[in-house]
Amino acid sequence: MPNVQPLDLQQPALAQALHRIWLAAYAQEATLLGLAPAQFPPLQKTVADLQASGWQFFGVMQGDTLAAAAALGDEEDGALRLNALVVSPACQRRGLGRQLVAEALRRTAPGRLLRVGTGAANQPALALYEGMGFTLEARLSVGSPPVEFVRLTRRG
Asked: pTM value?
């Protein structure tokens, strides 16, 4: 299985590769949630937004090509948040998402909460997170039109 490595988004080609995967993966989620692209905030992010996010990005390369990526950030309550998990559509169903979630858990200090959110209708993501021991923390209705999201947690 390919190794997970830090991603330096100050490298323009890598930042653009991440953005391409970001758009493709979140377009799939928007479809699962029944949303038009303009209604789904992750699809409005630019390369510059990702570079300026302050998130810690890491990913999986297949040869010279970025195949999947994730981002971690701190929350105000002391929890760590998995802010993004994106896998290139061409590389899905190969365990790369699982590998990145495992890396996020590895980077979570023992006892610290790791939090993730996804659309309640995103069954592939829910199956991944629940299969890795995450439990439901909250259900939220957000946006217009309202969409149900879930927040899941697991201790590191």
From this structure: 0.92
User: Is 123:155 a contact under the CB 8 Å cutoff?
Assistant: no
Residue 131: C-alpha distances to residues 98, 106, 120 (Å): 9, 16, 15
Closest to 129 (Cα-Cα) out of 114, 144, 148 = 114
Q: Give the alpha-carbon dihedral of 19, 20, 25, 26, to 10 degrees.
A: 50
Q: CA torsion sign, 90 to 92 to 94 to 96?
A: positive
Q: At what angle do helices 12-32 and 123-131 cross, to 10 degrees?
A: 110
The number of residues in the chain equals 156
Q: What are phi and psi of 61, to 5 degrees?
A: -100, 145
pLDDT in tens, 76-116: 999 999 999 999 999 998 999 999 999 999 999 999 999 99
Q: How far is CA 34 from the centre of its chain?
A: 19
> Residue 81 contacts by C-beta under 8 Å, 6 or more apart in sequence?
72, 73, 74, 75, 114, 115, 116
Number of C-beta neighbours around residue 47 at 10 A? 16
CB atoms within 10 A of CB 131: 10
